[in-house]
Structures are given as C-alpha cells and as structure tokens.
Specification:
Distance between the termini: 28 Å
Strand content: 5-15%
Largest sheet: 8 strands, mixed
Structural class: alpha/beta
Order of helices and strands: EHHHEHEHEHEEHEHHEHHEEH
Number of strands: 10
Number of helices: 12
Radius of gyration: 23 Å
CATH architecture of the largest domain: 3-Layer(aba) Sandwich
CATH topology of the largest domain: Rossmann fold
CATH superfamily of the largest domain: NAD(P)-binding Rossmann-like Domain
Shape: globular
CATH class of the largest domain: Alpha Beta
Length: about 400
C-alpha cells in the first residue's frame, strides 16, 4: 500500500542519480568505529599513576560508555545486577517516504524503541519527509532502494550488510499502482512494472535478507508483507472489476515481458488496476509460503495485513481527478471504511512490535473500534499449491534458481 511513485525513466538514469545521493549515508559510519580500541587507549598508563589520575580516567571511561549507550542502539548494556537491557529494534521499511510507510516509520521512531531504515528510491524526498514528520535524526537512516531494479535490490542488501546493523523486522510496503495505464510499463529487467516492483522486487529483497533476520537476537523477529483488500475476492471491495485473478500463471511463467508472453500474470490483456491487485495476491501468497518454509526452523513471524482504506494516500495519485475527489468522502461517510494515514501507520507499527501479534502466517485486519483480528483470505490468496508455484517461478525470474 505504500506509497511510492516509481518513475518509468530508464533505471540506469534513476540509479545513477540516486546512487550519488546514497553516498550521504554517513550517519551509519559510526558502526565501523571500534569503541573497545578507544576505551583501551584510556587504560594505557605510562608507569604508576596517582589515585587521583586513576579516578579521573575512570570518570572519562564512564562518560564514553554513557555516550556509547545513548548513540549505539544495537548494543545490549548490562545492569549492575547482570541483567541485559533491551536494545533498540532495527526495522527496514520500504516506501517509507510517504503514505503508510512514512506514517509507520514515524510511529516506530517516536516510540523510542526502534531505529528505522527508510528504504526509498528518492533519497531527498525521504529526508524532507522525515524532517517534516518531526522524526529525530538518531532514530532513522535513509538508504537508497529502487524495487523496480533487481540490481538496486542487491546493492541495497550489500550496503545494509556493510553497515553491520542488526535486522529484526523487514516491512515490505512499497507499491506501484497505475489504474489508468493503457499500456504496460516495465522494470529494468523487463517485467511488468506493478508485479515486478510490488512482488518480484520484494521477493528478492526478503530472500536476500532472510539470513540477517535469522541471526537477530531480538525477542520477536518478523517479516511483514503489506496486502490489500482489493486482492481478496471474498470481500465487497475485492469484487469491484477488474477482479484479481492469477489464472494458470502462464504470464508469470513467460516472464511478464509483453514480448513472448503477456505482461499479465494470467496471460490476459493488460489492465493497470488488475496488475496491482494481482501483485497483492502474490504478496499474500508469498507471506504464507515463507511461513510454511521457514517459520518452524527460524522462529521468524511472517505476516500480512490490510490496515484499512487510506483514501487520501498518494497511492491514488495516478487515478482520474474525479476519483481522487469523490473517493475520500465516499469512504468516510458512506462505507465508513476510511482510515487516516496516521492511524494506518499505528496499525502497521502494531504488527511490527506488538507482543500480542506474534502469530505467524496471519493476515491481520482491524474492526471499527481499531481492534486487530485474524482475517480470512480469499480462496486464491490462500491456495497453497498456487503459492508454491508462484514461489518457484519467482525464484527463476529473480535469479535465485
């Protein structure tokens, strides 16, 4: 649901432009500094020192340790009783420069319990958004990620690993939605843009970061993929044409290139709104397949969610003007399904951190009193055999098989 507008300009231009900006990620440089080396230098006394000097040295060391505890959230500090205090959690959120992603980043950062890695295509937009939201600099880091380029995904993962930050939660949130497009646009690798970005880009990202999640020592490590009510045909909204339908996956098997196969997963004619809905079905199927393959082995919680209808979100920026004008009041006063970006962000933040939402393989929703509950997915979005096929085809398309 997030809400990042992806350009259809050649990826090389976007990456080159953003690549320069990504060089400004100096706020993580402190992770490469050895605090122990600094502390050891404090204890290098040339000869016998007086008790006064030793006392001064110890005070200096104490100050350094206090500063380290304040600025390095990844370190567990021991109490005098030998108990460990909980470090800040480390969460990656894709598409965190606007909409649901930004609202979630803000909610987690303001809690003081999380350091947010804002994984965004437009570095400057993300920086401005974070400042506008009032997020404290010590609570977030911006890193370049263009999900419409698999090379960019791999570069992001490499950069993240080099930062030596832990990874406790990954939130796959960014999305492309082109409901009025008459012709398909394509990713750097030649996949239809909506499925290539929303599903394949996130699929590769999650697979490459899975080992980092496994290594987390955080009380609850999680991988969250944002779903959508529009991909569930067991709902009223999911039955608004064009309905999601992956068919026999012939388009996905053919590479979604529009050349030797259809640009649509089911092999049909291109429809921008349906491409988005199909990508959301893939997201929800992928979450369940992750759960089946890895939950028992790793203890990672895999979940999806629909936080409610964020009718004012930038996701609809490419819709017709009349729709953008009428849709918010329709959701507020007719369906009563309207949810603000702030509220939706709090809901996703719940799935990230709430101890009561640790059940894996669940698709979360909220009722009118904002209470969370396990929702039911449509027959297609919960088809285990189709999930397995989507997984295996996706592995081949992103170069993992």
């Amino acid at each position: 649901m997030a809400l990042q507008a992806y350009s259809v300009l050649p990826s090389a231009i976007s990456i080159h432009k953003e690549g320069k900006l990504s060089m400004s990620l100096k706020d993580t440089a402190f992770l490469g500094i050895s605090i122990n080396d600094h502390l050891n230098s404090e204890f290098s006394f040339p000869g016998l020192k007086s008790k006064i000097e030793l006392s001064q040295r110890n005070k200096s060391v104490g100050a350094i340790r206090a500063q380290t505890a304040a600025t390095t959230p990844a370190v567990n500090q021991a109490t005098p009783q030998g108990k460990k205090t909980l470090r800040k959690g480390s969460v990656i959120i894709t598409g965190a420069s606007s909409g649901l992603g930004l609202a979630t980043a803000k909610s987690l950062a303001e809690s003081g319990k999380w350091h947010v890695i804002m994984a965004c295509r437009d570095f400057l937009k993300a920086e401005r958004a974070a400042k506008s939201a009032g997020m404290s600099k010590e609570n977030y880091t911006i890193m370049h990620l263009d999900l419409s380029s698999l090379d960019s995904v791999r570069q992001f993962v490499d950069n993240f690993k080099r930062s030596e930050r832990p990874l406790d939660v990954l939130v796959c949130n960014a999305a492309v939605y082109q409901p009025t497009a008459k012709e398909p646009s394509y990713t750097a690798e030649g996949f239809e843009l909506s499925v290539g970005t929303n599903h394949l880009g996130h699929f590769l990202l999650a697979r490459l970061l899975l080992d980092d999640l496994k290594q987390s020592d955080y009380p609850s490590k999680r991988l969250i993929i944002v779903g959508s009510i529009t991909g569930n045909t067991n709902t009223l909204a999911g039955n608004v044409p064009p309905k999601a339908n992956l068919g026999d996956l012939r388009g996905l098997a053919g590479g979604l290139s529009g050349l030797n196969s259809s640009a649509m997963i089911d092999g049909g004619d291109f429809d921008g709104a349906k491409a988005y809905k199909d990508s959301k079905v893939c997201n929800m199927l992928t979450m369940q397949e992750f759960h089946r393959r890895y939950h028992e082995e790793t203890g990672i919680t895999f979940a999806s969610l629909y936080p409610g209808c964020i009718a004012t979100t930038g996701l609809f920026r490419e819709h017709i003007p009349l729709f953008r004008l009428l849709f918010p009041p329709f959701q507020k006063y007719i369906t009563k399904g309207y949810v603000s970006e702030e509220e939706s962000g709090k809901r996703l933040a719940q799935v990230v951190s709430d101890p009561s939402l640790t059940k894996s393989g669940v698709y979360w929703s909220w009722n009118k009193t904002s209470a969370s509950f396990e929702n039911q997915l449509s027959e297609e979005a919960s088809d285990a055999e189709k999930a397995k096929k989507v997984w295996e085809m996706s592995e081949k398309l992103v170069g993992l098989a």
